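In the design runs reported in the main text, the only information available to the sequence generator was the tokenized backbone. The following block is the verbatim input for one such run; it is reproduced so that readers can re-run the procedure and compare outputs position by position.
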């Protein structure tokens, strides 16, 4: 089949469906999409919870709990012990099929009836203030942890221990504000770097130790701001950069980012991968428009934050782990042939379902465990199920769900955007496809005004000691105003940013011990604002067509002078590429060949 241009029914822009896309849709027996890839991604992002936790009470056992669902949304929430226990049966909430109204409307009604677990933590110890963590211990405010210990204020960390304010770190230990890095130890402010130790302020460095403020280094030691020293010289010079002092941290960061913008950056971070287009790609093969993929992702398209042997899948956001044939899914793991679904684990042949575990042949189900042949949480025989499914799919075409923006959801579209479990500014949409409140409402999503907080601020930032050496244990008793909060009347604080600011924060005992051990100055932002500030370093999952900025002997903006001759000699490089770095940004962007000529 030839490629075809369609007009997105959400943003009204044209997009192209390639011939190989049609082959995939035919393979899994679904119609071609009517939303463009970018709008489909935003729709899935809106279905994934953000870093919001609320106090609530378990409806079943009446105990106080921490939940990802806001109490004012009136969902039925059980503590994790009750939800995984035998004291209730999800099939008791099943709905009888009603062909007089849209199927997705019935599915939305079902989601409002069935109890939800407070969080999605499994086999964890002392991780009450976390979510989506698996086999973790002693973690706090960590989201997406896997087999990790003593990780605090982190996002997506695996096989790690003793991390604070770290994101997407695999096999790491004793690190602070380290982002998208693997195999790291004793690092601070390290970004997109692998196999590094005893270092601080690095970007895209590999195999380095005892380095400070460096960019694009390979297998180096004793370097400061890309200048190499002897071991003795380094030990003497590094004393000038005491990261236990807050003012020194600010000065060091400023100098580091000045260096970063004067050195070429490769158009995309792609490692050990073949035929891969996107950014932040490792150990990936035959993938297009993919971002943040790890370890054995193959034959996929429109993928974001997936890994661990995900194969033959399209339009998948978070998930994988020995999975295949996903389409329009979010947060699905260890499963096969899952479509238009969220949070399915160890399941197969599932469509239009939410949070089901160890199930197969389910359509329009939610919160099921160990079930087969179910529709809207109602049990059917194998013969009944196989007879009904084609009728339901045709009914979804004949009587589709239509949202408030008059967008049509026939069979083949992901779950409706106007009925998520989380509002847009409490979802991944707010992180990776940021919009203003006005844009969110205009696009048909939901928004929640920040909940009023009545913290009693006991100290201001100007009263904090600059150096960690001067911080006493009394700091543990203080409630500190976040730097992003602004003062209002009556000594109250309002949000000064759109980063889920908590207005105030406290330093906890394990945190103070960490800062002292690592010689780090106290933070001036709450943990949410610190996270959103780190996100600014991460490219958003969107590609732009650009040309290489190598102008022959120097970069086109004249900030960088080449150190060797390139294949194109003194003429401008003619290479073009797809990159997640937009034209408006300040980085010097080189193609693969020019970058490797300079740094590898």
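Verbatim output:
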């Amino acid at each position: 089949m030839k490629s075809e241009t369609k007009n997105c029914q959400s943003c009204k822009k044209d997009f192209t469906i390639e011939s190989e896309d049609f082959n995939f849709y035919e393979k899994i027996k679904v119609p071609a999409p009517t939303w463009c890839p970018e709008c489909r991604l935003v729709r899935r992002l809106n279905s994934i919870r953000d870093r919001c936790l609320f106090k609530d009470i378990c409806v079943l056992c009446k105990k106080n709990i921490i939940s990802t669902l806001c109490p004012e949304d009136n969902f039925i929430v059980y503590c994790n012990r009750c939800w995984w226990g035998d004291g209730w049966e999800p099939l008791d909430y099943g709905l009888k099929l009603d062909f007089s109204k849209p199927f997705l409307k019935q599915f939305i009604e079902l989601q409002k009836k069935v109890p939800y677990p407070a969080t999605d933590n499994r086999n964890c110890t002392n991780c009450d203030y976390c979510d989506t963590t698996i086999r973790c211990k002693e973690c706090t405010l960590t989201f997406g942890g896997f087999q990790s210990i003593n990780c605090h204020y982190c996002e997506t960390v695996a096989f790690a221990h003793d991390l604070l304010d770290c994101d997407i770190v695999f096999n790491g230990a004793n690190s602070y504000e380290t982002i998208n890095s693997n195999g790291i130890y004793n690092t601070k402010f390290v970004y997109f770097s692998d196999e590094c130790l005893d270092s601080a302020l690095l970007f895209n460095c590999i195999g380095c130790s005892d380095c400070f403020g460096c960019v694009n280094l390979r297998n180096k030691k004793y370097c400061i701001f890309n200048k190499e020293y002897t071991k003795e010289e380094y030990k003497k010079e590094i004393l000038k950069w005491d990261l236990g002092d807050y003012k020194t941290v600010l000065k060091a960061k400023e100098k580091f980012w000045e260096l970063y913008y004067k050195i070429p950056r490769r158009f995309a971070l792609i490692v050990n991968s073949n035929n891969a287009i996107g950014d932040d790609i490792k150990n990936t093969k035959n993938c297009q428009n993919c971002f943040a993929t790890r370890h054995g992702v193959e034959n996929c398209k429109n993928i974001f934050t997936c890994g661990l042997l995900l194969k033959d899948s399209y339009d998948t956001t978070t998930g994988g782990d020995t999975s295949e044939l996903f389409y329009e899914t979010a947060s699905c793991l260890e499963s096969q042939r899952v479509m238009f679904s969220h949070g399915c684990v160890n399941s197969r042949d599932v469509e239009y379902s939410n949070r089901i575990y160890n199930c197969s042949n389910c359509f329009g189900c939610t919160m099921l465990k160990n079930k087969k042949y179910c529709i809207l949480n109602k049990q059917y025989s194998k013969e009944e199920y196989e007879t009904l499914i084609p009728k339901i799919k045709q009914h979804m075409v004949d009587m589709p769900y239509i949202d408030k923006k008059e967008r049509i959801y026939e069979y083949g579209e992901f779950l409706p955007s106007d009925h998520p479990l989380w509002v847009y500014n409490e979802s991944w949409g707010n992180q990776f496809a940021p919009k203003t409140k006005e844009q969110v409402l205009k696009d048909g999503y939901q928004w929640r005004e920040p909940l009023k907080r009545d913290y009693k601020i006991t100290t201001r930032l100007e009263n904090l000691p600059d150096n960690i050496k001067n911080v006493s244990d009394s700091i543990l008793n203080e409630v500190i105003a976040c730097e992003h909060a602004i003062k209002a009347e009556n000594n109250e604080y309002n949000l000064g940013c759109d980063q889920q600011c908590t207005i105030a924060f406290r330093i906890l005992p394990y945190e103070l011990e960490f800062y002292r051990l690592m010689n780090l100055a106290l933070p001036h932002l709450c943990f949410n604002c610190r996270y959103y500030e780190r996100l600014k370093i991460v490219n958003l999952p969107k590609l732009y067509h650009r040309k290489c900025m190598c102008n022959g002997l120097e970069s086109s903006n004249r900030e960088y002078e080449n150190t060797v001759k390139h294949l194109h000699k003194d003429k401008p490089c003619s290479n073009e590429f797809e990159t997640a770095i937009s034209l408006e940004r300040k980085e010097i962007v080189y193609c693969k060949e020019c970058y490797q000529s300079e740094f590898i």
